[in-house]
């Protein structure tokens, strides 16, 4: 009796938990991600769709948008500022991205040594990431100061005469390199991720390679790099998206925040900001610019993704 | 990242404000109305009679008090001024002080506030929202003004809405959504936009209406800045003209006496700058505050009979690139490169920037009155200094240019009568005294009597203001403000000795952009 009773009671309960749990888990899943989901729908997806709509209108905030067709898009291609901003951003991506990947990796390898007090060094290298963009930009403004800056005075110590010191942010030829140098200060964020990757590489691989007679360079190229390639891939994607959207340094460091001198720091997003938030608020054109940027970033990301099958190594894909 | 968050914030704000207005309109106008109604119904008769009695009483007393106070203080001021002129003349040593006093005296006979200059409507009630970008210390003064207002208008609840960042963008969103503050402040760059877009109410019927304000209490040229097509849209809030700060120590060392009565020409200015320059000691005759922008040159431009754009705001090419205009833009270049009496921009930026004057390295600095507060208080100079009116062109009337912020009434305000009373008060004498603003002649004279060095930027400059070219088209900042200032900045950083090409290019680019934006219609 007792056995029968138990099965009679238990069976329906068990059945219910099977379906109920699934539904419950689904609900819990959505409940847990709802803060992000709501944020995404209302704060990201919604406005994105809205800007797509605005990009086909003349819209100055103060009066309702009026239909413009493709005018904003065609205007972009005849706008010298658009091309200049594309050039500046392209140059920045071209120099900054590889440099930040290589530097980040090199620092991570250094920080992976078993030396006493290494945690202090790691903290020091990661510190710039925690400093707010505006604060670090102001700091670098002083480092690059033409006559009193740390950098130029260091150049003076090396023997470069004062008359040849670069004016950095005041010189069209040096402003962009200065921003690239400044941005590289923040490679700590990449370093920390590489470091995690380095720690995850099984030591037995290195041991086996050593027994086979591989020298440190060979071990680096044949073990470290392939093992880290998924992380490098991730860093390239992240870096690419970030580098295309640089804004704060140019806004703060160019002489009047307009991307000068001579348009040398007119980053894409700074131009977009000037169009949308300066003057008479050409929000329609600014929206079109933001969608063009979206397409450019998407295309570049796709290219990197496509190339990944050639050089990115995944443990699970093997065999 | 910043781009996305900006666009995101913006669109989100739009959606949110839309939602808020929807909800509010669904609830029946606003939340304040029912409570006010409830309060009235509980004790109708007593409350209203009591209120009207007190308001009437307080209004009249307050009015008489202020007029009396101003009259006496103005009288005191003039006597003080007269006394000091006499004293200075007697000593004959302080040539500069006599000049300053003489020019203040020249600025007009002592102005007093006419009786009943403000026909107040103290029966107004309800809420008045005031939008401002002020923050920090200036907010304290605004709050003092609001407290003073509430003493006279106890039934009006003023709500201060301070938006120190992205003020213009937010205001434009609010105008579009119909929930902008009843009274809001506007900078000279945006003033035209809010007239064109129907954000600002035409104040002409109010200022001449039943509850009028005597316009003669203001400097006429200052009040006129707020006019578009002969209609008054903005009351003056803050403003300054341009003048010259000079280092008395360097003047004495070079054996130069400041111009008598503050009357001097640009040629004299240039000569004096040469005499004040000591290249070997890195001492300069003169400088503009920071880099030279379009507005710095405007007084010279006007004196040469040139301008930025046509009066109707449609033509830039053919105006900005005229020979007279280009000659004006090249004036400081000649001082920088031919005379070498002014530091170039690279030198300014890499040698202490705008502190060059404060460090005693520059004889004369052309700027607005914004340094006064520092020099008189927070950052006093360790040398004797004075101020002078802007020079004028030989044989021509003086010119000047205003930097200005105005006060507007929201065209869609639900409480326009109260908003008008607040607007009058905010730009009136009592607020002027609290906030140390020079818009009203009588108040300006009191303030200048206390510190004569304010005169060149205020009471003297006010005689020579002309309407701002920025108010001729709402696309000024998209065109001249962008291409000319960018061109001037690049040219200065590249040590360009002749601005002809820069100005011509800026005129061409500006015209092209103006045509494009105008073609997009309103």
Question: Whole-number average pLDDT of chain B?
Answer: 82
Strand residue percentage of chain B: 5-15%
Low-pLDDT runs of 5+ residues of chain A are none
Q: How many H/I helices of chain A?
A: 13
Q: Helix- and strand-based class of chain A? A: mainly alpha
Instruction: Note poorly predicted spans of chain B.
Output: 1-107
Q: Helix count of chain B? A: 21
The helical percent of chain B reads 40-55%
CATH architecture of the largest domain in chain A, by name, is: Orthogonal Bundle
Order of helices and strands of chain A: HEEHHHHHHHHHHHH
- Which architecture of the largest domain in chain B does the CATH hierarchy give at level 2? 3-Layer(aba) Sandwich
Give the amount of beta strand of chain A, in percent: under 5%
Helix content of chain A: over 70%
Superfamily (CATH H level) name of the largest domain in chain B: Periplasmic binding protein-like II
CATH superfamily of the largest domain in chain A: MetI-like
- Biggest beta sheet summary of chain A: 2 strands, antiparallel
Structure overview:
The complex is a heterodimer of chains A (319) and B (522). Chain A has 319 residues and is mostly helical. Chain A has 2 domains: 2-54; 70-317, MetI-like (MetI-like fold, Orthogonal Bundle). Chain A has 13 helices and 2 strands, in the order H-E-E-H-H-H-H-H-H-H-H-H-H-H-H. Chain A has helices at residues 2-54, 71-78, 80-111, 118-130, 133-143, 150-158, 175-184, 188-200, 203-211, 216-244, 248-253, 268-277, 283-311; strands spanning 57-58, 66-67. Chain A has a two-stranded antiparallel sheet. In chain A, a hairpin with a 7-residue loop joins strand 1 (57-58) and strand 2. The termini of chain A are far apart. The model of chain A has no long low-confidence stretch (mean pLDDT 89). Chain B is α/β, with parallel strands linked by helices and 522 residues long. Chain B has 2 domains: 49-239 and 403-459, 3-Layer(aba) Sandwich (D-Maltodextrin-Binding Protein, domain 2); 243-401 and 475-519, 3-Layer(aba) Sandwich (D-Maltodextrin-Binding Protein, domain 2), CATH 3.40.190.10. Chain B contains 21 helices and 11 strands. In chain B, the strands form 3 sheets. Chain B has a 5-stranded mixed beta sheet with strand order 2-1-3-11-6, sandwiched between helices. Chain B has a 4-stranded mixed beta sheet with strand order 8-9-7-10. In chain B, strand 1 (126-132), helix 5 and strand 2 form a beta-alpha-beta unit. The model of chain B is unreliable at 1-107 (pLDDT under 50). Classes of the chains: A mainly alpha (319), B alpha/beta (522). Chains A and B meet through helix 1, helix 12 and helix 13 of A and helix 1, helix 6, helix 14 and helix 20 of B.
